[in-house]
Amino acid sequence: MRYQISGKQIDIGEALQTHVKEELGTAVAKYAERPTDAQVIFSRSASEFICEAVVHLSTGLTAQASARAHEIYAAFEGCREKMEKQLRRYKRRLKDHHRDREEPVELFGASSYILASDGEDTESEPDSLQPIIVAEMETKIPSLSVGEAVMQMELAGAPVLVFRNEGKDVVNVVYRRDDGNIGWIDP
């Protein structure tokens, strides 16, 4: 597994990097069969250290966790425990969904836009109905089953996931509803 361990405006030493590689590697290997890379970022907010970790699996799934503590090692341990808990919780699902999958999840290219809010009063009539595009970037849309999409959304902690449904070969959306349930849009 490839590691990218960095600090935002703080210096992290070799001892911490070695500790992260050993502990995170052990935790991820216990529950995920083929992790490809991990990104761990340490930062500081007032008197607390923040550790954010993202682990990509070869199946296309991404798990992420973060934790805060007054000591940097404690922040990492909290993050590692959250990551381990996520992967443990979904181990059966990961095995069930990916046992027969021989190749990684197929990804399709798409455009992603960030639209600017006009900041004006909502009561006034806009000059144009065209939104202002702040940024345009490329993104990848995975080809997943509905169960895999829900699992990916929960592992990533995302409120919504756009994916191509493997069964119907059309674009679908899963999202977390306000009542705590999962919504699925299948056009």
UniProtKB/TrEMBL annotation:
Domain of life of the source: Bacteria
Molecular function GO labels: ribosomal small subunit binding
Coiled-coil blocks: 73-100
GO terms (BP aspect): negative regulation of translational elongation
Localization, UniProt: Cytoplasm
InterPro entries, per database record: HPF/YfiA_ribosome-assoc (IPR050574), HPF_long/plastid (IPR034694), RHF-like (IPR036567), RHF/RaiA (IPR003489), Ribosom_S30AE_C (IPR032528), Ribosom_S30AE_C_sf (IPR038416)
Alphabetized CDD domains for the sequence: RaiA
Keyword S-adenosyl-L-methionine: no
Gene Ontology CC terms: cytosolic small ribosomal subunit
Keywords: Coiled coil, Cytoplasm, Ribonucleoprotein, Ribosomal protein, Translation regulation
Domain Sigma 54 modulation/S30EA ribosomal protein C-terminal: 130-183
SUPFAM superfamilies: Ribosome binding protein Y (YfiA homologue)
Function: Required for dimerization of active 70S ribosomes into 100S ribosomes in stationary phase; 100S ribosomes are translationally inactive and sometimes present during exponential growth.
UniProt name for this protein: Ribosome hibernation promoting factor
Source organism per UniProt: Roseovarius azorensis
Name of the gene encoding the protein in the UniProt record: hpf
